[in-house]
Amino acid sequence: MGESKSGDGAAAASSDAELLRELVAACVERWEAEGPTALEQLCRERPLQASALRRRIERLRELGRLGAGAPAPVVPSPLGDFRLLERIGEGGMGVVHLAEQVSLQRRVALKLIRPELLHFGRTRERFQREISAIARLHHPSIVTIHAVGETGGLPWYAMEWLAGATL
Asked: How far from 29 is each of 11, 33, 49, 91, 118, CA to CA, in Å?
């Protein structure tokens, strides 16, 4: 009986650590749009983890990895067969660049994970789910995926480039 309690304690500690990693990742994803409000909202939603979450986020700010003035992560270029031309969009999880597929001399939209998020939990898994979901869709209003890859540990995918207004 003593073994199961100790095993349960280890599982709970692992679960708590995973939850904290997920909360930090969520806060980082939301920080650009919401700033400190993202942290406050998450702390209200998860009061038991609030203290640890505040410590982790403060440490990221001290390291210059969060908030205004944070250095832009280095993105390798080229990325496989793609040469980055300009940054055209961004969201909580990724950044989209206009790129040239060198071998085919065509422009594409190249999406990559924000490099700073690669240190958190299931970011790669979520990115892969996004790719899989898009690849299964077939509709004239949905762009197609041309290529998927990873360069320098940074996952990316190339999509059809449609000139015009952003969505």
From this structure: 27, 8, 18, 8, 11
The total number of structural domains that make up the chain = 2
Query: What is the domain range of residue 42?
Result: 2-62
Whether residues 52 and 87 fall in one domain: no
Peptide bond into 78 cis (omega under 30): yes
Residue 167 counted as domain residue: no
Per-residue pLDDT of 71-124, as tens digits, reads 555 677 788 899 999 988 887 778 899 999 999 999 999 999 887 777 776 788
- Decide if 49 is inside a domain: yes
Amino acid of residue 75: V
Tokens of 80: 């496989």
Query: Is 1's pLDDT higher than 60?
Result: no
Complete DSSP assignment for 76-119: -SSBTTEEEEEEEEE-SSEEEEEEEEGGGTEEEEEEEE-GGGGG
